[in-house]
């Protein structure tokens, strides 16, 4: 379609956004992608990515994202290193959606939302210091580096339980630090943790510091919240698993979000409840949260957008 209304705006530049861009561009939707404040998304803060197919020797997160951006641009995606500040989404079939980038107003028939989620951290200075040197928020991404070693998992929810059981298969020992006297995780997940012999759960314990040499983790400094006693555990990896925050503030009161703030999409598709608005990647997925699943859902979103635009022409 031609006029000054775009066919497809993509918000966010992780694997979901760039894959959506590649597919949308190849379908001639001439997508415009706004990267947001963290071009490349969460992967730009990781080191090695060994589980993305097509890279037999692994690839760094930043390089993977640069490659995806290059590929999206090869098919004439316009990539702007700018942040979308406001949206007004139409509720009508065939309606025009408004996007603001600062003072600039952009009109579009479809929007693919791939703004991702942000892992929560405790806020300790040491988390930053040892990031990439033993502190991680993703066991599936980084657990492999700690095979046969001892690690700590912080948190008592489903994420922590899942990360701990995953790590227990690779690591010599996993110590789970739960700040209260009980888990928040579901019973089934808790049972799995409690029945795994190389997982030790320390209730009423918090991580208060990290020690090591050359920015590599060697010890977790922990505090017993009941007694105030401070002790140290020798570990190589510390996994912070206290939840993620989906980046959905822009869409509050316009899109249906679940109780944790994730965008709700129709099962088996990227469609939100509004016509022409699609969501892909971690912003709508709190279960898998992998680069490859985000990329897959980006592809789905572009195909859904294309199908929607075709339906408007008929
Ligand atoms: P949750 O919010 O459910 O749990 C967060 C956990 O981290 C809680 O135990 C919380 O403790 C703890 N925590 C929070 N802040 C701190 C802190 N500063 N210091 C120490 N501990 C802290 O997050 P999850 O990511 O675990 O789960 C989010 C949602 O995703 C849930 O609905 C969950 O069911 C779902 N999920 C489902 C999975 C599955 O079905 N396979 C897998 C993963 C998640 P406290 O309880 O004291 O507040």
Please give a handful of descriptors for the protein shown.
alpha/beta; 7 helices; 314 residues; binds NADPH dihydro-nicotinamide-adenine-dinucleotide phosphate
How would you describe this structure to a colleague?
The chain is built from seven helices and 19 strands. It has helices spanning 15-26, 61-74, 125-129, 139-142, 158-168, 187-194, 291-313, and strands spanning 6-11, 32-34, 48-49, 59-60, 78-80, 86-88, 97-101, 104-113, 117-119, 135-136, 150-154, 173-178, 199-203, 205-213, 216-224, 230-234, 237-240, 244-246, 277-279. Strands 1, 2, 5, 6, 7, 8 and 19 form a seven-stranded mixed β-sheet that branches. Strand 11, helix 5 (158-168) and strand 12 form a beta-alpha-beta unit. The chain starts with 5 loop residues before the first strand and ends with a helix. NADPH dihydro-nicotinamide-adenine-dinucleotide phosphate (NDP) binds next to helix 5. NADPH dihydro-nicotinamide-adenine-dinucleotide phosphate binds next to helix 5.
